[in-house]
Amino acid sequence: MRIITGIYKGRHFDVPRTFKARPTTDFAKENIFNVLNGYIDLEDADALDLFAGTGSISLELVSRGCRHVTAVEADRAHHAFILRCLKTLGTDKCMAVRGDVFRYLKSCKRKYDFIFADPPYALPELPQIPAAVLDGGLLADGGIFVFEHGKENDFSADPRFIERRVYGSVNFSIFGI
């Protein structure tokens, strides 16, 4: 896993082979962040990374200058890996929360400028995630929500949908408020 740009550009972290989570590919990550440059300035933004997995997106957001990143991950080993990566970088700009994303969405009172969600593609509740995020009041005015999902999902009917980007087998739906 590699950080693409920013203050930690080029840093590598070896993801344990036993992990179930698959980091967003460098190709897809680089391309979606290039697209995001047209929608949001991440410097000094508050960001939320849901289903953080290996922490790849969270680390990228910290490297790109986010003021604060909250990474939510339920798996104990993945959460511990994110904490190790943050310690290695020596940053306090990210808080790794070990917990259920849906509980977090219901209890969170904070607003975020940028939200990213990359749930397991086979998650039964996957189709409900955009509404849970967008209707939950977590996204600040002018904020952007990026949802990574499989090709069989289509969220273009949502009035807050902006566009869909496809990079190989990775699909991103972008929403705004």
TrEMBL record:
Entry-linked CDD domains: AdoMet_MTases (cd02440)
Instruction: Give the UniProt keywords, A-Z.
Output: Methyltransferase, Transferase
Pfam family membership, one: Cons_hypoth95
Keyword Transcription regulation among UniProt keywords: no
PROSITE patterns given in the database record: N6_MTASE
Q: Which InterPro entries match?
A: DNA_methylase_N6_adenine_CS, RNA_MeTrfase_RsmD, SAM-dependent_MTases_sf
Q: Does the keyword Transferase apply?
A: yes
Q: What is this protein called?
A: 16S rRNA (Guanine(966)-N(2))-methyltransferase RsmD
